[in-house]
Amino acid sequence: MPFPRVVRDEALVRSHRRCCVCHEFGGRSVNVHHIVQEADSGPNTIENAICLCLRCHAEAGHFNPRHSMGTKYSPDELRLHRDQWWTHCQSHPDEPRGLFLEVHFKARSRNADAHKYRLIVNYTNTLKEAHNGWKVQIFIPAFVPVEVGDFDKYDTSVDDARYTMLETQSAERVFPGATIEVVPNMNHFFIEYEVNNANYDRVLSAGNVMWKFFTSNAPVIEGEKPIAELQEF
Ligand SMILES: [Zn+2]
Among 81, 61, 103, which Cα is nearest to 18's? Predict the structure, then answer.
């Protein structure tokens, strides 16, 4: 039996929808997990519930006391993680509940010499207040060919490395709980980059996409990800 709705909701709210082990914001993919499995007579109560992200959920599910490889999660450890995180959330009620920017890609075309990808960025407003507008800056290494539609394009450098900075902004209001397409997958408004034979090695070793996302009333979200991690080649 799954947890009753009221128990699930309480666990999600007390955790701010974040993973109790790694504290990553889980959004819709957060799991409410049994600390002691139902097969081992674990009850469907809040005492036995913990919010975990997909990765930690997969790891915690592998706990087996008869197997001694690696450092496994025990129920006692999971309970301690959870209680520590719930105490933190309770004493920081106004902390942004996981400012959430999702950066991924869509393959556009592939041939033997080059792969083209379209960057897609979504933002979810996890605050209680609406934003009155937003701005995004995407930084792509200058050695990666980029084509854009309706983005301002600048040459810049970050830590002595040359980047192409792509910027756009909007006066759109973003309501609490809403998800918007910051870099959408549309015909006239896009960012496409190319991985080809000439830049392949550099993309693998030094190809980081970076971003900054500004709103009217929330902290700036900054992040970066190796291009090689954004997709499988
Ligand atoms: Zn986690």
Answer: 81
